[in-house]
Amino acid sequence: MAQIVGGGSPVNDAERRVIAHLRDNAPDDWLLLHNIEVPRGDDTFEVDVIVLTGHSLCVIDVKGTRGRIEVAGTRWFPQRREAFGSPVAKLRGNGRALKGLLTQERRELDRVYVDSLVVLTGTDAELVDPAGRDSRHVTDLAGLIGTLSDVSRVRRGHTTDTAPYGTAIIEALNGSVRRSTAPPRFGSWEVEEQLGGDTRVTEYRAINATVPGSETVLLRVYRADPLAEEEPRAAERRLITNAYQALTRIPPHPCVVRARDFFAIDDESRFVLVLDDVHGQALHLHLTAPMSTLSAAARLDVVEDMLLGLAHVHANNVIHRALSPACVLVTEEGRAMLTGFDYAKPGPRAHTVANELPNVLDTHYAAPECQAMPERMTAASDVYAAGVIAFQLLTGKLPPATPDAEPAPGGAPVEVMDLLRRMRDHATGKRPGAAEALEELRRARRPRPPDPATRHSGVPDPRPQDLRSPDAPPHDAPPHNASAQDFRPQRINPPSARALGDPVPEPPGAAGAADVERPEERGPEHHPRDARVQAPSQHGDEPHEGLPAQEPLFERLRTRFRRITGKQP
């Protein structure tokens, strides 16, 4: 049983499980410190658990994330939630900072190895790390004791026996750290879970502390240096506020993530962007999953939503500039939303943050004209990125370098693949705009009407003879007393000339056409799956199945008038 030497209150059940597991299962000579704050310059960072084993001091970050988690670069992509920065990279930085504090307190502690470990407590949590970047520093609850006991983790040049340094380590920690007394709080938002981050930004899931049981939000907490010179501070502030400025230019839309608030901590050492907590997962997961969870129609729905959101963004003079599968969220309802606006361009302005783009761009989705010069990003380069993402989603692989050399479309409609080819044209002028691409996609998905030449061929008159009026003449014979003027085209008065309540005849084929909303008449902000399409009228040129067809109203009135009066109507 490990000895707990102090700490604050655990923030959540995941942390409680780890602390209890170490207390009950670790060797008796291990020391445990939990929920502390470590100073770093003018700021602090939080540590969930610190364990002093027989050969190292290990900093532990606890994650309750469940399900499959894919590692791509410096981002983690969990199922059913938004991607976040790798906690491993941040934790290793915190470990180095802690080692620096220990060394300042006691010089001899330079020989002690400070390890870092992320513990996944979800019973079904699975880390998929193809590059092996983070997996060495991640374990689950069952493997925690074994990983902490592994002496081979100690790097060369450090001691593998911490017993002579135990007292010095505890004294140095007592002099450097302080107990964390409450969950972090930013304004009225109280943190429920730290998701991840890097040296620039940390991401949290939080609730409104003044409204118990309120829905969760996503906090992006940006660090800033309040003591920097004025010019670097101004540049840093422009980068930090960029996402909020871009999102406030965009009216609310179901396919674009919404910003709720933005504010600074008192000393401007941190800035907080409050976003909707989208219940979904990054599109990246659907591209890398062994078995796609999206049907062919659902994948086209995602492409349509992506273009719908992009058209809305462009219509409000905002350019995304960093569009990739990590910036497209697929919700639990199958809707797609655009996010990741940190480097967007919200219209003309005197400054730019494009110089930061080379650090974050995924070159697979960068247009050819922007590969070496990200500052040349335009709406056309956003369309190029959307074309690459859509091609990858529909075919399962990235497109070839030359659009004309791409393979057969597979299960996707030919018209859709041709659209994606033009969206990725190397000539920016030949790419359609986002709104134009959206309309073309909708037209390509629209069901084709039957061929008019064969629509009625060989179909007999479905109207039974015994349902016709016994006094009515055959339809192909003129009635008695008919004159030549009876067969002249009849003039139908416009609506303004008819009395209110008069029956309105409908020309053949017009019924239903006015009831069904045409996609090309809808704006970019209208989503086709939200449309309520009325059933077509039964007064068209095709008789309704099971009902006798009726003659046009005016023709029946004329026939009846002649039969009764013997006069012309």
TrEMBL record:
Provide the residue span(s) of the region labelled Disordered: 441-555
The record's section on Gene3D superfamilies has: Transferase(Phosphotransferase) domain 1
Q: Does the keyword RNA-binding apply?
A: no
**Entry's SMART domains?**
S_TKc (SM00220)
PROSITE patterns membership: NERD, PROTEIN_KINASE_DOM
For the NERD domain, which residue ranges apply?
Answer: 10-121
- Pfam families in the record: NERD, Pkinase
Q: Which InterPro entries match?
A: Kinase-like_dom_sf, NERD, Prot_kinase_dom
Kindly provide the name given to this protein in its UniProt entry. Answer: NERD domain-containing protein kinase family protein
State the species of origin: Streptosporangium vulgare
